[in-house]
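Ticket #4471: structure export looks truncated?
Reporter: QA, pipeline team
Priority: medium

Steps to reproduce: submit the single chain below to the structure queue and open the exported record.
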Amino acid sequence: MKSAVLVTDVQAKIFDTSPQPFEADEVVQRINHVTTLARAAGVPVFFIQHESPGYLDPASEGWRLQKDLIVKDSDIRLRKTTGDAFLRTDLEEKLTLLNVTTLIICGYASEFCIDNTTRRATGLGYTVQLVSDAHTTHEKKHLSAKKIREHHNLTLSMGPTITAVQSEDISIEG
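Actual output as written to the record:
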């Protein structure tokens, strides 16, 4: 099984403003841990950035990746316009060319982009390791960000092809 890491929507306007997402700094550190392990194993790292006119405009400072993320020239950058990183992008083609069968998913937002991308990945036949402490969201009126993350870790990992794994326990195969 060849793996790839997908880091979704860890962008300046989302992470470097107030209020920050739940455990924003810790999540970035955990993502850096996972991507460092991936690169050491020869596993491709994808940074996926959402773009939306008037909110996450690609020409804006806010669209850039969060300042503390470790990004290397060898990493693959991808733009998306929906909560699903596969929809209207060339992500699937890139993964196919790299013979990837397992995705390691982390980033923002647990209940939208992480959920949509994880579900689509399994529907396309990928095995997924959801990095359970390296995805996040903002507080909502009806539910705390911590509870949202816990809910998605539980419900997404109920299927046979998705496993929720803490960043310190992640297994990365090249």
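Status: closed, not a bug. The export was complete when the record was re-opened. Leaving a note from the reviewer for reference: The beta strands are 3-8, 45-50, 76-80, 102-108, 127-136, 162-165.
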